[in-house]
Specification:
Structural class: alpha/beta
Shape: globular
Number of domains: 1
Distance between the termini: 77 Å
CATH architecture: Alpha-Beta Complex
Number of strands: 11
Oligomer: single chain
CATH superfamily: Spore Coat Polysaccharide Biosynthesis Protein SpsA, Chain A
CATH topology: Spore Coat Polysaccharide Biosynthesis Protein SpsA, Chain A
Strand content: 5-15%
Length: about 375
């Protein structure tokens, strides 16, 4: 058990095994659940999956229930009907948004926002209506097979304290099948931040380095902050959110919360759909955030400095794994460092979505366009 604080407030679960105290997971944490909209993004592969079933079943147990549960879904036309029926089979105040519906594509196209899609765009489509429907917004993934409803209360707990917190992020251990996971964070994000922090002292680096699992998909925020997010369209969502949280909430307004240990679905490393492809999106979002924070990376030498920082971390991971009796494949982890190093480059054009306070349409327009069904409309002039 540890209780070390970071530059941001770190809320630990100090109960622990054998303690006489009640753990945060078991305690009835204060949190404004009934004033909260929960956003759970899904794709077609989550339909009926054990992890997504657990997430929705756990959300059913929240008492009081959340104000709304928004489920932004990306699925083909022949799957959205069954998806809707499955979501609505749970006793939840659910709102399903079909993120690739034709009317959504038209809405975005007319606003000049049609280029690019992914998890970030889907979450952005839901965050606007969520912030419109409730005082607080919680976002989390649907792929955690260890998910508990208490995670919502934990994420909300800092926001309900009389301490001025506006943003809360979850962190957790990724130890599964006798080995360390959380590979993209451990092997890409962390060494890249270390390499840059060795040569720069801008506060944004301290902020990004303070999060124990910066790429976790679990976070909560006030509705006011949610309306100010400039969301990357794909896998850079989590890092882009941290950039805006730094700008608007800062060190004093941010907290991170212990969510215990998570068991997630895993991705392959290679390919655009794997961690290699994700690393390019994360790199672009991270380096853009850093540039906006005053960091001027020396891109020609940064890959080598990243590799050097990664090599030092590999030895630390090896020692930690050995201490805990875990398997550790150093050759595989080094090979991942090499793959991820290829992602380090200037971030390119800024394709983030606008803040909802600046959006060219409103949440009601999204709700109308993203309905997972469409009634047949009769032209009133027909037959005249």
């Amino acid at each position: 058990m540890e209780y070390v604080q970071e530059r941001i407030a770190t809320l630990h679960d100090l109960g622990g095994s054998g303690s006489t105290r009640t753990t945060a997971a078991d305690r009835d944490l204060d949190g404004p659940v009934d004033e909260t909209a929960v956003v759970v993004p899904m794709t077609g592969r989550e339909h009926g999956s054990p992890a997504a079933e657990r997430v929705l079943s756990e959300l059913e147990t929240l008492d009081p229930p959340p104000a709304a549960v928004f489920v932004p879904v990306r699925a083909p036309p022949d799957r959205i009907g069954p998806f809707r029926e499955w979501i609505e089979s749970f006793a939840l105040p659910s709102r399903i948004l079909w993120c690739n519906a034709p009317d959504v594509e038209n809405l975005l196209g007319d606003a000049g926002l049609a280029t690019g899609f992914g998890k970030g765009r889907d979450v952005w489509l839901a965050v606007g209506p969520a912030a419109d429907a409730a005082e607080y917004v919680v976002v989390h993934d649907a792929d955690a097979r260890s998910y508990e409803a208490a995670h919502v209360r934990r994420l909300l707990a800092p926001l309900s304290m009389d301490a001025g917190f506006e943003f809360s992020k979850g962190y957790y251990a990724r130890v599964e099948q006798g080995q360390l996971y959380g590979r993209l964070f451990r092997l890409f994000y962390r060494p890249l931040i270390r390499a840059l922090a060795a040569d720069h002292d801008e506060p944004i680096l301290d902020y990004l380095g303070a999060f124990r699992y910066a790429l976790a998909g679990e976070f909560a925020m006030t509705g006011a902050l949610a309306r100010r997010l400039r969301t990357p369209r794909a896998w850079g969502l989590e890092v882009g959110t941290l950039g805006d949280a730094f700008q608007y909430a800062g060190f004093a307004g941010s907290a991170q919360v212990d969510l215990g240990r998570h068991v997630h679905d895993h991705r392959a490393v290679a390919g655009e759909a794997g961690l290699e492809g994700m690393s390019r999106e994360v790199a672009a979002a991270l380096l853009r955030v850093l540039e906006e924070g005053g960091v001027e990376p020396a891109y020609e030498t940064l890959p080598d400095r990243y590799r050097a920082a990664g090599e030092r971390l590999l030895e630390q991971y090896r020692a930690d794994a050995s201490f805990n009796g875990l398997e550790y494949d150093r050759a595989s982890e080094r090979a991942q460092l090499e793959r991820y190093a290829e992602s380090i480059a200037p971030p390119g054009p800024d394709r983030r979505l606008p803040r909802w306070i600046d959006a060219p349409f409103g949440p009601a327009d999204v709700l109308e366009a993203a309905r997972p069904w469409r009634e047949h409309r009769v032209d009133p002039s027909a037959g005249d």
